[in-house]
């Protein structure tokens, strides 16, 4: 008895066009089918390979799957349990395969756009069925060529308008004699904002990176197949179970149910989303200028470690389930433990949402204090304050607070149960409903006003800095004064001065023409301690109702005998 099997081979190319860093945002796919191979052979009953099938097409009892760039060839052996090719073994000699092979051209071209980043949508666009997708997700399948598109994950989220209209026009765009694209000016402007990543099975002389180069590659695809179509690669393969040749050969017991594959996919896809989320925060101005938010780096590392461990477990379970060594309940139990443990998606997303809120709060404060310098570390702060006679530093003190949830994740990775889940959650100082954040913003505004009033001062004499440092005594924020590199007084006293000078001063008149200052005796305190409530009268420049920026230094000698030393230092160099 003879069969006439066939195997379809064709080239598969993907041109991935991006807008402002959005990799894989729009995928143009061109497929060309050129060969169908026929093979005549006599079936034999002498082959018994447990759980192994060979690559062959028949109309009955066959399995169909996409090649994903793997080097399939006629007559090869394939392990369906682990989705691995068995190299170096064929059921027939190569000479016999070549002699009995027949070819028939089957040209075809297809153009599609896939505007999605999810594994589900990308695998669907490549025709990957559930079982093979499960193997890919847990790392059993190593994709090559154009199928590397599946592994090309974004590192950060980006926002922006999709240029799908431009991509749809690729088949219609012509290249003029000068090498320029024939497009309208608006279209050309959009095209210049696109970047391109090529995933294909050809070794190009130059990988396309621009829209123009992508169009050229697209138009050159038929030529790249070679004059005799020798550069084609298998895209779809058909597998015949060995039990068809010999009933005693072991069969593929079961495939993984779609429900469990979808659960595993959602979990792993969630970790990919979290990684991009972490990168977004770390690459934001607030994340780069305040490394104390680096707890996010720790979170990202632990999520990656757990994801790799989960993939390793899945890669061990899948072959056992497919071969009948274990039931699907074993896989269901693994996924259930993930959902019930600290690495479940809800808790991870909630933690990241809190960190995102904290980052946005810091970003808002940075915007409020644009007239200050931001330093990223304690060492950088030391360099800055040492380089100036005086420096006023606004300190964000709660960025490095302890995180019980991170401790719980760490203990889980070590395999030990942590009691940190019972620990109280840290106070969300960055919440708009929290009084701490309200106080921090008020202090930041006062600080910014001082910096604005002194913006003309030489940085060698006075600097206004912002830094993130831990301070257990001051929740939310603190303000430090440095002179010649040494810290002079603490937040409480300085905050009192800032608040009083801004909101509770009386009037102080300065007569510039006579260079005299008239001091009202009513503001002189009976005791130095009361200076916090009543220090100065409001400064009003003659003819303009605004704070004077000069004159306080003239009071230095007079005030020094009445005020504490830290205030005299203040009036020695700071003005409002």
Inertia-based shape: elongated
Overall pLDDT metric: 69
How many discrete structural domains?
A: 3
User: How many E-type strands?
Assistant: 19
Unreliable spans are 1-60, 159-166, 170-181, 498-576
Note the total helix count: 17
Radius of gyration: 35 Å
Summing up helix and strand content along with how strands pair, one would put the structural category as: alpha+beta
Strand content: 15-25%
| Main sheet specs | 5 strands, antiparallel
Enumerate the strands of the largest sheet in spatial order, edge to edge or round the barrel. Answer: 6-11-5-7-8
- Alpha carbon gap, first and last residue: 101 Å
Secondary structure: helix percent: 25-40%
What distinguishing features does this structure have?
elongated, 576 residues, disordered C terminus, 3 domains, single chain, SNTX thioredoxin-like domain-containing protein, Cytolytic_pore-forming_toxin, alpha+beta, five-stranded mixed sheet, 17 helices, Thioredoxin_11, five-stranded antiparallel sheet, disordered N terminus
Characterization of the model:
The chain starts with a strand and ends with a helix. Strand 15 (477-483) and strand 16 (486-489) form a beta hairpin. It has 3 domains: 2-244, no CATH class; 260-368; 504-573, no CATH class. It is elongated and about 90 Å long. The protein has helices spanning 94-99, 119-125, 130-137, 164-168, 185-192, 211-224, 258-283, 285-289, 295-323, 328-340, 345-368, 378-386, 404-413, 435-453, 491-503, 556-560, 565-573; strands at residues 2-3, 6-19, 26-39, 41-42, 52-55, 63-66, 76-79, 84-90, 101-102, 194-199, 236-241, 373-374, 390-396, 462-468, 477-483, 486-489, 506-511, 516-518, 537-539. It is an alpha+beta fold and 576 residues long. It has a 5-stranded antiparallel beta sheet, with no helix packed on it.
